[in-house]
Amino acid sequence: MSQEALVAEIRGLRERVPGITDAAVAAVDGLLVAADTAAEIDPESLAALAAAGLGLARRTAAVSGRGPLRQTVTHCGGGYAVIYAVGDTALLAVLGDEGLDLGRLHLETGALVERLDDLLCGRTR
């Protein structure tokens, strides 16, 4: 796994989607793998909290019988926190301001999640 490649992928997402302020890739146990965050965001804390949120959302999806979790969106007073499942072992956390284009974000992350999973697993397509 190349940390530089992971950071390049999440930086590219920030460049393509208006409103993204921060992004991180983490393991589902909360350990930070790669981040592109502002100075006021602690990437390790973001990774840990995103993992906890992903765990709760996955359990909710399982109990409700709606199929595997793809994403969870939290709309806050000043923006959004969106967590995407990356395979079974990782996640992508994206923070955005009120101007975040959620539709564009969801479109962009479909292929991105697959690329991140490949990078994390050492696969090439």
Identify the notable features of this structure and list them briefly:
single chain; 125 residues; alpha+beta; Beta-Lactamase; 5-stranded antiparallel beta sheet; 3 helices
Q: How is this structure best described in words?
A:
The chain is of the alpha+beta class. The protein has one domain: Dynein light chain 2a, cytoplasmic (Beta-Lactamase, 2-Layer Sandwich). Helices cover 45% and strands 28% of the residues. It has helices at residues 3-16, 43-64, 102-121; strands spanning 20-27, 32-36, 71-76, 79-86, 90-97. A five-stranded antiparallel β-sheet has the order 2-1-5-4-3, sandwiched between helices. Strand 1 (20-27) and strand 2 form a beta hairpin. Helix 1 packs antiparallel against helix 3. It starts with a helix and ends with a helix.
Q: How many extended strands? A: 5
Q: Structural class of the helix and strand makeup?
A: alpha+beta
Low-confidence segments: none
Overall geometry: globular
CATH 2nd-level architecture: 2-Layer Sandwich
Radius of gyration from the alpha-carbon trace, in angstroms: 13 Å
In terms of DSSP E residues, the strand content is: 25-35%
What do the pLDDT scores average to?
Answer: 94
The CATH topology comes to Beta-Lactamase
Main β sheet profile:
5 strands, antiparallel
Terminus-to-terminus distance: 14 Å
Query: How many structural domains can be distinguished in the coordinates?
Result: 1
Task: Name the CATH class.
Answer: Alpha Beta
Strand order of the largest sheet: 2-1-5-4-3
Order of helices and strands: HEEHEEEH
